[in-house]
């Protein structure tokens, strides 16, 4: 490791969150965890390994490609593909034991007899207007058609809640009513779906009314409430923490400008530090002149535009800030062992291990603050989901079991 920009992925925090969520489930309810988009940016393989250990029933991905990636290291964990699939995908999904959603994108009549059975969950569009069948009649014709197919098994019926994290629950309640109406109509035809599922993280955190047979959580597993104001979950622990370091500190005189486009003009004498993170790492450019990071225990503002690989911060109020200081981009403050001299003294080959070990050792260090993505994301006019997914391959991920 030469560059000081990296993310720590704390797998014990993931395990902790899973246990916490399992504790919120009504008896017998299954837990599915969404691991699409490389496990919300955390790295799908280590995440799936923890989920398996923690007894998660199923994982979900967005596409066949993502499912096949999991099959390269896990031959049999149950996987549900949440995106729309066509005939080609159905053939491969059956071969690799992947559950798919039945949507109106690919009618059953288009799918040729499959050599291996395919498990399908009928997706009902109850109000999100994204995927699925829009009427109970359409659902009933599909179950009739499925009953004629030995190669296709009805594994469940589901919907996706658009507003389960809202303070006004009327939209979500209507969606659930429509789902139940379809389930009742199926029952009248003598068909009981093996699984009914609707709840995402927000749906789960609402209590057991919407849990049915299975919940599909994503963001809560990775440590964030979908909306901390509406559904506070202080016991969740963020799994990913991102750091960089100061590469330069300079004095800036009043009237001087900072960064591309000269969008920031110093109103007073300032100390400005450059940090080694930019939008090519997934650090949103929209944080220009409005984001914050943490240096030596203090929150400091981004000044000027975020560049592709660097950004500038105002450290005027942190007189001790110096080149080599570790900077919290988001997550828990760095352990006290992370000093510029310790980093320099280690060879590049030893740094990753050192970061992992010292992070784990500092798990119970007192007084470490958190720069939560729940704070950073609104400054970037987005949600933690998007920031996590965008931390890209240029940022090494170091896995820790604290
Ligand atoms: C169909 C479906 N179910 C569940 C989830 C998990 O949602 P969340 O991360 O809000 O828990 C998602 C994520 O977008 C999804 O698309």
CATH superfamily of the largest domain: Alanine racemase
Structural class, judged by helices and strands?
alpha/beta
CATH topology of the largest domain: TIM Barrel
Task: Report the portion of residues in β strands.
Answer: 15-25%
- Tell how many strands the DSSP assignment holds: 19
Characteristic terms for this protein:
402 residues; alpha/beta; TIM Barrel; Lyase, Ornithine Decarboxylase, Chain A, domain 1; 2 domains; nine-stranded mixed β-sheet; eight-stranded parallel β-sheet; binds pyridoxal-5'-phosphate; Ala_racemase_C; EC 5.1.1.1
Report what the structure shows.
The chain is elongated and about 75 Å long. The chain is 29% helix and 22% strand. With 402 residues, it is an alpha/beta fold. The chain folds into two domains: 11-217, Alpha-Beta Barrel (TIM Barrel); 240-400, Lyase, Ornithine Decarboxylase, Chain A, domain 1. Helix 1 (11-23) packs across helix 3 (44-53) and helix 6 packs parallel to helix 7. The protein starts with 5 loop residues before the first strand and ends with a strand. The strands form three sheets. Strands 1, 10, 13, 14, 15, 16, 17, 18 and 19 form a nine-stranded mixed β-sheet that branches. The chain has an eight-stranded parallel β-sheet with strand order 8-7-6-5-4-3-2-9. It has helices at residues 11-23, 36-40, 44-53, 64-71, 87-95, 136-147, 170-188, 201-205, 340-345, 348-361, 373-379, 384-390, and strands at 6-10, 30-34, 58-61, 79-81, 98-102, 118-123, 152-158, 196-197, 214-217, 240-252, 257-258, 264-265, 270-275, 292-295, 298-301, 311-314, 326-332, 370-371, 397-400. Helix 5 links the parallel strand 4 and strand 5. The protein contains twelve helices and 19 strands.
């Amino acid at each position: 490791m030469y560059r000081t920009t990296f993310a720590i992925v704390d797998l014990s925090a993931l395990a902790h969150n899973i246990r916490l969520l399992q504790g919120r489930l009504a008896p017998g309810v299954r837990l599915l965890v969404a691991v699409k988009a490389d496990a919300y940016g955390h790295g799908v393989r280590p995440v799936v390994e923890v989920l398996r250990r923690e007894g998660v029933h199923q994982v979900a991905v967005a596409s066949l490609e993502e499912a096949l990636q999991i099959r390269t290291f896990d031959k049999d964990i149950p996987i549900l593909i949440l995106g729309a699939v066509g005939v080609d995908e159905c053939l491969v999904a059956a071969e690799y034991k992947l559950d798919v959603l039945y949507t109106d994108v690919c009618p059953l009549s288009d799918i040729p007899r499959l050599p291996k059975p395919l498990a399908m969950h009928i997706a009902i569009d109850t109000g999100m207007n994204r995927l699925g069948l829009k009427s109970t009649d359409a659902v009933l014709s599909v179950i009739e058609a499925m009953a004629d197919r030995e190669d296709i098994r009805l594994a469940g019926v589901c919907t996706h809640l658009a507003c389960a994290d809202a303070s006004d629950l009327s939209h979500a309640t209507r969606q659930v009513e429509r789902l139940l109406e379809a389930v009742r109509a199926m029952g009248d035809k003598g068909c009981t779906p093996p699984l009914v599922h609707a709840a995402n993280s927000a749906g789960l955190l609402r209590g057991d009314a919407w849990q049915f047979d299975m919940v599909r959580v994503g963001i809560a597993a990775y440590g964030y409430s979908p909306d901390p104001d509406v559904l506070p979950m202080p016991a969740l622990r963020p799994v990913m923490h991102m750091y960089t370091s100061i590469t330069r500190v300079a004095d800036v005189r009043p009237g001087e400008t900072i960064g591309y486009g000269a969008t920031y003009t110093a109103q007073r004498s300032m100390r400005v530090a450059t940090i080694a993170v930019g939008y090519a790492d997934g650090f949103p450019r929209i944080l220009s002149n409005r984001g914050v990071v943490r240096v030596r225990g203090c929150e400091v503002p981004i000044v000027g535009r975020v560049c592709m690989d660097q950004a500038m911060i105002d450290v005027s109020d942190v007189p001790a800030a110096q080149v080599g200081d570790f900077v919290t981009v988001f997550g828990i403050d760095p352990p006290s062992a992370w000093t510029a001299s310790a980093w320099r003294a280690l060879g590049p080959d030893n740094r990753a291990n050192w970061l992992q070990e010292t992070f784990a050792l500092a798990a119970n260090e007192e007084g470490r603050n958190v720069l939560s993505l729940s704070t950073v994301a609104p400054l970037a006019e987005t949600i933690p989901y998007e920031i996590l997914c965008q931390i890209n391959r240029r940022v090494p991920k170091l896995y820790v079991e604290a």
